[in-house]
Amino acid sequence: MAKKTVSVREVLRAPSGAVSLADIDPRDTPSAPGDKDATKAQLAADGAELAVLQEKLYAEGATGGTRRVLLVLQGMDTSGKGGVIEHVAGSVNPQGLAITSFKKPTPEELRHGFLWRVRRAVPAPGLIGVFDRSHYEDVLIGRVRELATPAVIERRYREIVRFEDQLAESGVTIVKCMLHVSKWEQKQRLLARLDDSTKRWKFNPGDIDERALWDQYQRAYEIAVERTSTQTNPWYVVPSDRKWYRNWAIGRLLLEAVQDLDPRFPPADYDVAAQRDRLIDEAD
Amino acid sequence: MAKKTVSVREVLRAPSGAVSLADIDPRDTPSAPGDKDATKAQLAADGAELAVLQEKLYAEGATGGTRRVLLVLQGMDTSGKGGVIEHVAGSVNPQGLAITSFKKPTPEELRHGFLWRVRRAVPAPGLIGVFDRSHYEDVLIGRVRELATPAVIERRYREIVRFEDQLAESGVTIVKCMLHVSKWEQKQRLLARLDDSTKRWKFNPGDIDERALWDQYQRAYEIAVERTSTQTNPWYVVPSDRKWYRNWAIGRLLLEAVQDLDPRFPPADYDVAAQRDRLIDEAD
C-alpha cells in the first residue's frame, strides 16, 4: 500500500502574485506517494475511487442536482493532455464524461466571442467535463502569435475570471491544470513520434516552428496563470516531464475535487414499498 | 482461449420482411464463445482489440479521413443500454468516443424536425459515437403514446431510412442494436432497483405504467425494425436477458464493424528524416 500523501492541491497550487515557471522543475514529483511503480498503483486505486464517486455525482445530476466538475488541461505540445484523458478520465464510466477538444476555431466560431464555443461545452450537471485545450488558447497562442490586439488580450483575462466565477456559481467545480514540460523533454517526445510509425500522424512540422517561440509561450502561461488564478478557481502547475507523476497528480487533483463535493446517491422520492407492491401484484 | 465464433452479425441480423420478437428468446445466447466466464473473458479480449483499432480510426480522422462508427442502442427500460456503454465503450480511449443520451425532447428540440437534434450528435470523423436511445424514439414512444399522427409516424420511417443512407454515404458505419429483454426479466430488474438503495434513483413510478403498454411497445419495435432494416443499415436483435451475453454480443458487433473498416495509422505526409535533422540541429 502506498504511503498517505498530503493534499496535492496545496503543493501544486500556483502562487498568488508573480509566477516563474523557470523556478518549477518539470522533473520534480512533489508529494508523490512513492516511486514510479507505487505511484502507478496509487493512480489505479484513485481511479477506482473516482469511478464510484462519479456514479454518485451522476445520480445527483440525473435527479435535479446542478453540481459538476470541469477539468481544464493546458500545456505545450506533447505535454500529455491526451495521456491524462486516457489514464485519468478512462477510469470512469464514459457516460459520466464530456470531453471537448478545442482546435483552431472554425469560421463560425470566429464570428462569435471567444467564450461562445466554450459555454456550449460546459458539462451538464452530474458530469465530469474535460477540456483538452480551452478558452486559455485565446490568451496563449492568441498572445504569442498576436491573433488579437494587446487591449483585447488584456480584456480577455478579466472576461475569463468573470466567466469562471459564473460557472462556479452555477455548480461547476473547475480544476485548471498547466502541464509543465521542459523544452528538452518536448524534443525527446517529438523525436519519439518521428521514430515510431504508429505515432508519426501526431507530428506536424509546425510543432518545431512553435518551439522557436518557447520562451514567449512560457511567459504567456505565466501571465495567464497570474491573471486568472483566483481563490475560487486556482491554477495548478503540474510538473509533467515524468508521465507517471503527471497522471497521478492530475488524477489526484480531480479526485480531491470530487471528494470535497461528497456526492451521495439520492434517496427515493416515491414510496418504495408501495411501488414494490405494484410490481409484484401486476397482472401479467 | 475461447473457441472461435462465427460472425455474430449473421446470427443476430433482423430478418428481412416480417419480424416477430416473440419468436426470439431473450435468454438465448447464439454463437456465444462459451459459458458466462468464457464469454466475459472474450469480451475483455475483444475490448482490447477494439481499443487498438479505435486508435487507428482516430488517427485517420485526425488526418483528413471521414470514416466513423455509430452504435445505436434501443431497448425497453432496464434492457441495459447503460451497461453496454460502461462495459463495451468503456474499453476504448474516451477521447475516441462521442456518447449522446437522448431524453424527452426539450422545447427547443420540439420546434425542429425530429432529426434535428440527431444530426447535431452524429460523431465526427475518427470517432465511435454511441446513441443511448435515438431518433427511433420518435417512432416507438411516438407511436405507442400517439405523440404524432399515424401519417407523421409513417413518414418518419422513410425519413429515417433516407437519413441513415446519407450518413452511410458520408462515411458513417451504423450498428443498430435492439436490446431484447423479456417482460419478466424487466420486472426482476425493476425490483432489484427498488431493493438497492444505491439504485433507487434509477427507478421511476412511470416505469410501471409503461409496462402496461408492453405489447404495444413490442409491436412498435417490430414495425420499426421491419421498416428501417436495410442492406446498408441493418438492425440486430440482441437477446438481452443475460447481461454477459448482451455485452459480449454488442461489443462483438461493434468490433466486427471496425475490423471491416481496417483502419491504418496514416503514413507521414512530411519528410521524417528532414524533420528529425531539424530537431537535432535546433539551436538551444
From TrEMBL, chains A, B:
GO molecular function, one term: polyphosphate kinase activity
Domain Polyphosphate kinase-2-related: 35-263
SUPFAM superfamilies: P-loop containing nucleoside triphosphate hydrolases
GO biological process, one term: polyphosphate metabolic process
Thylakoid among keywords: no
InterPro entries assigned: P-loop_NTPase (IPR027417), Polyphosphate_phosphotransfera (IPR016898), PPK2-rel_1 (IPR022300), PPK2-related (IPR022488)
Entry-linked Pfam families: PPK2 (PF03976)
Keyword Transferase: yes
Name assigned to this protein: Polyphosphate:nucleotide phosphotransferase, PPK2 family
Naturally occurring in which organism (per UniProt): Klenkia brasiliensis
